[in-house]
Amino acid sequence: MLQTPRLYAKLVGYIIVTLFNELRRYTNATLVRQQARLLGSSSATARDRNIVVIGASFAGEHDARLVSASLPPRSPYRVVVIEPNSHFQFTWVLPRFCVVKGHEDKAFIPYGGLVSKVPEGAVRWVKDRVGEVREASVSLEGSGEHIPYEMLVVATGSGVQGGLPSRVNETDKLEGMKRLQAMQAGIEKADTVVVVGGGAAGVEVATDAKALYPDKTIVMVHSRSALMHRFGKGLQDAALKAMERLGVETILEERVVDEDAGAGTVTLRSGRKISCDFFINCTGQKPLSDLLSHLSPSAISPTGHIRIKPTLQIGDDNFPNIYACGDVADTKTPNPNARSAMRQAAVVADNIVRVATGKEPCYTYNNMWADGFIKLTLGLDRSVSHIGDGRSELLFPGKETKEELMVGMCWWHMGQKAYEDPYMDGKDGVKAD
Ligand SMILES: Cc1cc2nc3c(=O)[nH]c(=O)nc-3n(C[C@H](O)[C@H](O)[C@H](O)COP(=O)(O)OP(=O)(O)OC[C@H]3O[C@@H](n4cnc5c(N)ncnc54)[C@H](O)[C@@H]3O)c2cc1C
């Protein structure tokens, strides 16, 4: 009975700590800006010591933003961000945009917001993929350039071979939009859609598809005894209830062992065959840690994550100047998400700024249960928000009025006006209305 007030009290504590840290960073960045205005800042050529950030999604972009805003104006350091994607790819809305038409362009947000807000020369943006990490430099796959670093942040996240609905697996916005449109068309054409994996992406795509096309047969196959099995019982029940309400057939404790696109069937581990016109795989995300596997094999955990110290330096004493954060880092976060990735990025940024000003890294990352907050859509017009600490949970059912969900908020966060993107000029063939 006391569980709910206890959870609310803990939540208030979490909010206070988070606000305090945000305020500390904001104050520091404001001071730096004032100093730069009064005393000037290092020219681009004087900034010849690189802090290289690999990957510019939730973790890497946030880290680069905080470091470049907090470095003293006369710092000899600059941040070099290396990211192959033409745009920030907003994962949260991918399941929705795989089903619903007309919003695809909104999932790809221009990156310019970061560079425009920091002193000239404090950030170099490189659109390329890192192919190799060496002791003091990284090499780029596209241009072949070797970029030296004094500090390195690995924020390469996780990937999935099958792509959508979890990842786009295209670097270019236009190509990414085409992939979303292809999936929308596949679902629209199919009589029976089989979705594998009852985590958040699977539940969202299955409930959206059934809500939009009530006459289609949508089948969910999940290997565990409950949907959303990493979360509390309340959320598991809410997900199952939504499936039942909409009429999604849910098969638990089963695996797909074969998919025969020609015959239009999938075979389950039990031998049962299900007809399938369109197959959606929502499983198989893996941390992208390969880049470090040659330089520091001991830093790679059996799960493929990068081992880290509490300071988020990698777990290899030979490389105190290499940090990891986000989905790729072995932080033991129960449900890794954008919030935990950004909190880790902030810890890395705090430590890097200390080192860049002649101090030792001292900030540490601790899992915070409230990072695991999730808002799960359950069809086109409703959702449930969930927060829990493993002992008890709070559930907040909600109505969803916007088909494109909260994507506009992310454009604002990225320093962009929703949904203005000069990249799309002249590309109206695939642009959403
Ligand atoms: C479908 C879906 C929905 C989600 N919904 C939510 C949600 O509602 N709320 C929430 O908080 N979280 C959500 N998440 C989780 C969240 O997206 C991840 O936790 C978050 O993206 C992790 O951020 P990251 O920066 O660590 O890694 P990623 O987002 O995986 O980004 C890694 C970046 O590194 C780049 N990269 C990779 N390799 C290289 C290389 N060799 N060289 C250069 N760059 C490279 C990639 O291009 C990418 O931009 C969702 C995830 C998915 C898949």
From TrEMBL:
GO terms for molecular function: electron-transferring-flavoprotein dehydrogenase activity; flavin adenine dinucleotide binding. One of its GO terms (cellular component) is cytoplasm. It comes from the Eukaryota. Residues 50-344 form the FAD/NAD(P)-binding domain. This is Apoptosis-inducing factor 2. SUPFAM superfamilies: FAD/NAD(P)-binding domain.
